[in-house]
Amino acid sequence: MIPRYQRAAMAALWTDDAKWRRWLDVEIAVVNAWADEGVVPREDAELIAANAGYNVADIDRYQVKIHHDTLAFLQSVADTLGPESRWVHHGLTTSDVWDTASALQIRDAARIIEDDLERLEASITKRAVEHKRTLCIGRTHGIHGEPTTFGLKLAGWVDETRRNRRRLADAIESVAVGKISGAVGTHATVPPHIEERVCRELGLGVEAISTQVVQRDRHAHFLSTLAVIAASLERFATEIRHLQRTEVREVREPFAEGQAGSSAMPHKRNPEKAERVCGLARTIRANALTALENVALWHERDISHTSAERIAIPDACFALDYITDMLAWIIDGLVIDADRMQANLESSYGLIYSQRVMLALTEAGVGRDDAYKRVQSYAMKAWDEGIQFRNLIEGDEVITAALDGDAMDAVFDPGYFTQHIDASFARLGL
Question: Do 122 and 105 form a contact (C-beta atoms < 8 A)?
């Protein structure tokens, strides 16, 4: 991921140094486990724990010659030790270290995203409660439907964000597993209880049957979860983009003094932050596809997945961390124009009450088909001629016979649409 879309804490997790640090943590944990078994002399294990290190530049230099990052890493570690270095990587294969250390990186990255989602939920919740009763038009197919409230719209986002937090927790549990089972996963060179001890010490679960790798359905689950979360964020951002359109103008994302919207048109105030959320959500989905394609490996393993994972997993984490923080910032500073919402609500000639009229007619004894066609004919006339819908139906004897003045007022009362708002919010504990 290019630096433009990296945040500092997430970027720090995916440096080469951070990777090698976790590799060393795995190697030391295995050495300590062997020492407890009496295989590695305790004094050697203590020397390794105290002195083992690595040099990133040396690892890079060794890789140019060896063409194998594990061996390059082990050579650099050996440079920091004496004869005791022979116990580093004892009984292991590359995937024991690679997959277990990767689980540590993924888990730590996911925890940052967990914090991001918590902040996002708090931001949306605050604005939802603030605009619990702010009337706005609900749209279907982009066309005016019936009144709702802006707070209820946001309350749906709160609930979706909560679901995403639960999805992420489940995905972390699935992917945060290690394997220390040796070549092709038979445990021939490293027994299962060593694996269990090492993973427990590192705070990871254990891959029950690992072949030579942790099975990649776990990583596919994780990246697919990130993609689902990103899709939700894109949905929220797309709504903000639509509501910021000139013709709608109900909300505006923050726009700082001195900020420019266009190199050519000084008047432009574009929803470019929300658009950025949408764009990066697409790259996260693409990385999820890569993870799904990594599930099918040859036999006990190949390494077709590793080159793809070096890009797909960090980039998905970078992008989701970035856009979750970005969306929280947008919502915190979102300019919400309640007057414009009211104006838009009133702009469709009262047609938003058409269902209320139809239902009132049927409740008064008019057949539903007759009521529908009668109301629809006046609705189309209101659209075509720009006439208030209520004015038209008040000239219809069938309708006025069914609806007296008070009943007509009740039908055209927008408060009808907000009568259950409190119950909806109560479902979320708000």
Answer: no
Span 168-188, mean pLDDT? 96
Look at residue 251 and give its three-state secondary structure: strand
Residue 149 near residue 338, CB atoms below 8 Å: no
CA distance 155 to 140: 18
Integer Cα distance of 217 and 199 in angstroms: 19
In the predicted model, what is the mean pLDDT of the chain? Answer: 95
| Residue among 67, 141, 267, 299 flagged as catalytic | 141
Give the pLDDT confidence score for residue 260 in this predicted structure: 73
Helices 16-37 and 69-79: angle between axes, nearest 10 degrees:
70
Known active-site residue 262: yes
* pTM: predicted TM-score of the whole model, two decimal places: 0.94
Nearest CA among 127, 114, 137 for reference residue 158: 127
Residue 335: strand pairing partners: 252
Question: What are the residues facing 206 on neighbouring strands?
Answer: 178
**Model confidence at 92, in pLDDT bands (50, 70, 90)?**
very high
- How far apart CA 122 and CA 164 sit, in angstroms, is 14
Instruction: Specify the pLDDT at position 262.
Output: 66
pLDDT band at 235 (very low <50, low <70, confident <90, very high): very high
Per DSSP, 270 falls in state -
- Rounded mean pLDDT of 204-225? 95
pLDDT in tens, 241-276: 999 999 999 999 987 777 777 667 777 788 999 999
**Please, which residues have CB within 8 angstroms of residue 412's CB and are 6 or more apart in sequence?**
350, 353, 356, 390
Q: DSSP 3-state assignment of 336? A: strand
**Side chain identity, residue 42:** R
The active-site residue out of 68, 193, 262, 377 is 262
Structure token digits, residue 256: 């700082």
* Predicted pLDDT of residue 405: 83
What's the pLDDT tens digit per position in 294-324? Answer: 999 999 888 889 899 999 999 999 999 999 9
CA distance 236 to 278: 9
Write down the H helix ranges in 203-349.
217-244, 272-293, 304-332, 338-345
Packing angle of the helix pair 304-332, 94-130 (nearest 10 deg): 20
**Computed over its alpha carbons, how large is the radius of gyration of the chain?**
30
Structure token pair of residue 276 = 């950025």
To the query of whether residue 76 is one of the catalytic residues in this protein, the response is no
Distance CA 46, CA 51 (A): 8
